[in-house]
Structure formats: structure tokens, C-alpha cells
Amino acid sequence: MVYFRLSPVSGSGLLLLCLVLGADRSYALELNLTDSANATCLYAKWQMNFTITYETTNKTYRTVNISDVSTVRDEGSTCGDDQNGPRIVIHFGSGFSWIVNFTKNAPDYLIDTISFSYNTNDHTIFPDAEHKGNITIDKRVALKIPLNDIFRCKSLLTIEKNNVTQHFWNVLVQAFVQSGTVSTKEYLCDEDKHSTTVAPIIHTTVPSPTTTPTPTEKPKVGTYSVSNGSNTCLLATMGLQLNVTQDKVSSIININPNTTGVTGSCHPQTAQLRLNSSIIKYLDFVFAVKNENRFYLKEVNVSMNLVNGSVFSIANNNLSYWDAPLGSSYMCNKEQTVSVSGTFQINTFDLRVQPFNVMEGKYSTAQDCSADDDNFLVPIAVGAALAGVLILVLLAYFIGLKRHHAGYEQF
């Protein structure tokens, strides 16, 4: 027999999901499996959501957040038998399924594997998906728990594999329940026991409506490159500062290029630069070609861990920054702001980027940004003024000279 309950969560659970994805409601899932004698054999209660990045038909990447599990249903959860361990099997939404397998290894049991499946044939959730069909992500967990304990983890747990990030929190689970009674003895996850991760937060504050936090120093400038085979196909040099606002709390994060990983891809019409670090799961800059003769920054996707344990994820594929002719690079020495959303902006310093037509691993001639162009307005204006004065002086001279000759003719 299966007892399955879906209930809205208020308080801290709701707050956490809002911090993660900005959702309106959060749902706790509760599952109580009983055997033929109506004794509980498995109990679980948890909250979860998912972030999926997929490739589109125009070779760009989009990120979708799956947080609505209000249609969840149990289909196949079991207490197990002598050959097979217990399983949690649920389905929700359009083509989503989530399966957890447990194994017994006395005096412990294992949360063995977690499988997540989604279907990119759903055009509403995955518009313009390049690869169609059902995709399954299997992840070996092998988390060992004493048989007589219930596993508890209020902190955020994250599983990442193949462009899919699974988030879990407020977890309670006990497989192989002894004598039909769920244990009151808790086995805590490491995240609940201690939290020692230090994130490079330069400044965190609760701003007034008219002020924003300011960092204590500018970010370091790093050079990042993407290769296509043995050839460099994308170059970027910049200092990056991330501005995140969640629940009226603003954080400014300086990216350290020395501890930042770089990946990406290059295609004829699009190019992607992906950065990652200990707190940044991914920060994507996606460039596109327009009118066959110019490039620009079209899309930014980000997912990162915040110091309060939540995950911040934002995607915007309708940007228009860093516009320059193909075959050149874009350069802006002054500070610029890329506004991705109302809660996420990127400040750049000493920026230079070339996502297409990189020759011999070097930047081509740069087109300066409008901010830098201001530096050249002053000498041009002064030159024009001097030229005007010179013209007036010459004109006066010729007029005087003409009058002088006219006077001689009169006498």
C-alpha cells in the first residue's frame, strides 16, 4: 500500500524555493510505503526542483527551471523483496520522472542511485530543442546510512550531470524501516553538521530603496579562450563583478580568474563562453551573428550557490550588448553593466571580446564602446573650434586684403 501526500509548504521551505527559483509556491512530497501486513517499510519527505540546459536548433543554449511538482503521482514505488531493494518512483508534469533506488548492506543501507528523465518533445517547456526525445540521467549516489536511523538534511543538496542540476532540501528518508516504525534517531547530512564553504562575497547588505552596495575593490582581469580543435575560436579579456539581489538582500561577487574554469563552443552563427568555479555552477555568455556582418552578446545564463545555501538561477536570451563588426573585437575599458534581469547584473572592467573569426589566437582590430568614444570627443571638439577660428582669421585677412587693394585702385 502506498500513502502519498502533496502539501504546500510555508515558512522557511517556501522561502528557500523562492530564493532558488523565484517560485510562488513550494510543495513538500511525503511518501509512506507499507508492506502486505500494512507495516511501514519506507518513509520519505522532501522538496526538490530541477535546472536543465539544452541546445536549440540555432546552436545556442537555453536553461529551464522545473519547480512545479503539483501534478506529481506515484507509479511503481515499492518496498522491495529478497532480490530487489526499495524504490521511489514518481512522475510529474509532461514526461518527467524521478526514481531513487536503495540497497541494503547491513548494518547500513544505501541511497544507491537517482535517475531523472525528461522529454524534449514538449515544445512548451523545451522550445526549439535540437535533440528530441526522452533523456535519462543516472547518478550513482552511494550514500551510506545506518539501518535504524532516518536520514535528515535541511540544507540544500545538489546533483549535477549532463547539463542537469537536481536540487533537494528538507529531506527525511528511511528505507528498510524496522518493525514498521519510523526511527526517531536522525543521521544528519554533512551539510547540516557544518557549513565551512567560504564564498568570495565582497559585500553583502540590505540596501535602502535608493542605494546599492559597493564593493571594496575592482575584480581581477582575466583572459579566457575557447578552442575548436587546435585553433582558438573565441577570446575574452575582462574583469567580472556579479550583482545578485534575493529577498531584498544584495550581494556583489568578484570573479577570480585564477580559480575559474573555462569551457565553451564555437559555431558559424553562435559562440558560447562558459565559466565555472566553486560557487558558480555555470556562467554562460552566448554570442550571435546578426545581419551576416556583426556580432553581439545575445544571451546570459547563470546558476550559482549563495552563502545562505540557496541556488540562484537566471537566464535571458534576448539581450543586445557588445555589438561590433565581424572580423573585429569589441573593447570597452570603462566599467559597463550588462542587465540580465531585475535581480542580476554583470559589471565588466577592461573588457575585450572576440567570439568569431579569431586569427592565430590574437585579437583583431577593436571597435571601442560608446563609453570610451567619449574620450575622443574633447580633442575633436577642440580641433573643430580651432579650425573655425582659423577660418575666421583667414576670412578676415582676405577681406582686409581685398579692401586694401581696392583702396589702391581708387587712388
TrEMBL record:
Record-annotated Lysosome-associated membrane glycoprotein 2-like luminal domain positions: 219-358
PROSITE patterns in UniProt: LAMP_1, LAMP_2, LAMP_3
Localization per record: Cell membrane; Cytoplasmic vesicle, Autophagosome membrane; Endosome membrane; Lysosome membrane
Gene3D superfamilies, A to Z: 2.40.160.110
Taxonomic superkingdom: Eukaryota
Residues spanning the signal sequence: 1-28
Sequence ranges assigned to domain Lysosome-associated membrane glycoprotein 2-like transmembrane in this UniProt record: 378-408
Membrane topology value: Single-pass type I membrane protein
SS bond list: C153-C189, C332-C369
UniProt entry keywords in alphabetical sequence: Autophagy, Cell membrane, Cytoplasmic vesicle, Disulfide bond, Endosome, Glycoprotein, Lysosome, Membrane, Signal, Transmembrane, Transmembrane helix
Biased composition range(s): Low complexity: 204-215
One term under GO cellular component: autophagosome membrane
GO BP terms in the entry: protein targeting to lysosome involved in chaperone-mediated autophagy
UniProt keyword Lipid metabolism present: no
Region (Disordered), start-end ranges: 203-223
Keyword Transmembrane recorded: yes
Membrane-spanning segments: 376-399
Family per similarity comment: Belongs to the LAMP family.
PANTHER family reported for this sequence: LYSOSOME-ASSOCIATED MEMBRANE GLYCOPROTEIN (PTHR11506), LYSOSOME-ASSOCIATED MEMBRANE GLYCOPROTEIN 2 (PTHR11506:SF6)
Subunit structure: Monomer. Forms large homooligomers. Interacts (via its cytoplasmic region) with HSPA8; HSPA8 mediates recruitment of proteins with a KFERQ motif to the surface of the lysosome for chaperone-mediated autophagy. Interacts with HSP90 in the lysosome lumen; this enhances LAMP2 stability. Interacts with MLLT11. Interacts with ABCB9. Interacts with FURIN. Interacts with CT55; this interaction may be important for LAMP2 protein stability. Interacts with TMEM175; inhibiting the proton channel activity of TMEM175.
Protein name: Lysosome-associated membrane glycoprotein 2
Source species: Sciurus vulgaris
Gene giving rise to this polypeptide: LAMP2
